[in-house]
Amino acid sequence: LKTKIIFWDEKSIYLRQFFVRNNQIYAEAVVKAILVKDRRKTPPADFMKELGLVIKRPERPAYIDQFINLSEEKITTT
After folding, report:
1. pLDDT-based confidence at 77, cuts 50/70/90?
2. Contact (Cβ atoms closer than 8 angstroms) between residue 10 and residue 20
3. How many CB atoms are closer than 10 A to CB 7?
4. Which of 2, 57, 5 shows the shortest CA–CA distance to 24?
5. How far is the C-alpha of 35 from the C-alpha of 47, rounded, in Å?
6. Coil, strand or helix: which one is 24?
7. Contact (CB, 8 A) for 48 and 33
8. What's the pLDDT at 30?
9. Are 19 and 27 in contact (CB under 8 A)?
10. Which of helix, strand or coil describes residue 30?
11. I need a surface site. Which of 7, 18, 25, 43 has the fewest CB within 10 A?
12. Distance between CA atoms of residues 45 and 11, nearest Å
């Protein structure tokens, strides 16, 4: 499993995860994660700062907007 940070905002961090074997990608996923410290949601920038990570926030790719919209849709069953 290889993970790449795509983007983060005030609440969440967005990752791309690749499932790789013998240098071949078998699956790929976009993941939205919420970081938690002491049972409280922690902004990704604070979390990274605490870990000593100095990463410039990337520009938000257009597909993340689509991902956010899809993830916020209510799931209905018929």
Report:
1. low
2. no
3. 17
4. 2
5. 8
6. strand
7. no
8. 93
9. yes
10. strand
11. 25
12. 9
Alpha helix segments (H runs only) across 1-78: 44-50, 62-72
Band of residue 75 on the pLDDT scale cut at 50, 70, 90:
low
Q: Please state, in angstroms and rounded to a whole number, the distance separating the CA atoms of residues 73 and 44.
A: 23
**Contact at 8 Å (CB) between 28 and 19?**
yes
Give the tokens for residue 44. Answer: 């990704």
In the DSSP assignment, the letter for residue 10 is: S
Direct distance between the N- and C-terminal alpha carbons of the chain, in angstroms, rounded to an integer: 36
CA 6, CA 1: separation in Å to the nearest integer? 16
Beta pairing, strands 24-33 & 13-21: antiparallel
